[in-house]
Design brief:
- This protein is mainly beta.
- It has no helices and 14 strands.
- The chain has two domains: about 110 residues, no CATH class; about 80 residues.
- The strands form three sheets. Strands 1, 2, 3, 4, 5, 6, 7 and 8 form an eight-stranded antiparallel sheet that branches.
- A hairpin with a 7-residue loop joins strand 12 and strand 13.
- It is elongated.
Amino acid sequence: MKNRIHDAMGATRFAFTNGTGDTIAGGSVFDGGALGFGIVVDDVADGGTGVAERGGVYKLPKATGGGTGFAMGDAVGWDASAGTVVAATNGRSIGAVWKAAADGDDTVEVHVPSSPGPEVFMTKVTGDASGSIEVDTGFGQAPASFIVQSWSAAGGPRTHTLVLAMSGGDAGKIVIQTGAGAASDTHNVFAIRD
């Protein structure tokens, strides 16, 4: 496939019938509905059966101009009418930006997960959460569930006074606050998005 940048462990493929009325070019994004998004492997004539792939990093088209850039980790969706990657909306994401793209770039590298199932976010952050620490999952919506574990440098658990999944403009962020804290504390965050 001409626009695959990196393979991923566990890449998957699914078959589909092209009912668009046009040929779908290999390397294009295909929306398989409940099957999720995939990247078309080879050209598929209208009415033909094609194969779409998930599980890797793909170079995909994006719009250019002011406000069209993406930061690494941004959740992105697909505008089928424009044929470009866009900011993810309504929880429908094709994946996450692998490498930042500037407003003037006409492509962006996107990691398309190998499964349309729940997205999983895991990270370890270090810092004093006695004030509070925000962790952005990149989901763009509140996680379906999440777990936070906080530890002192000596290995003792920290007691949480607040663990909150944000909504509105901060949707996807998790706020952690502990009763006591130090700059060397670690916080393990695990979140799932349906």
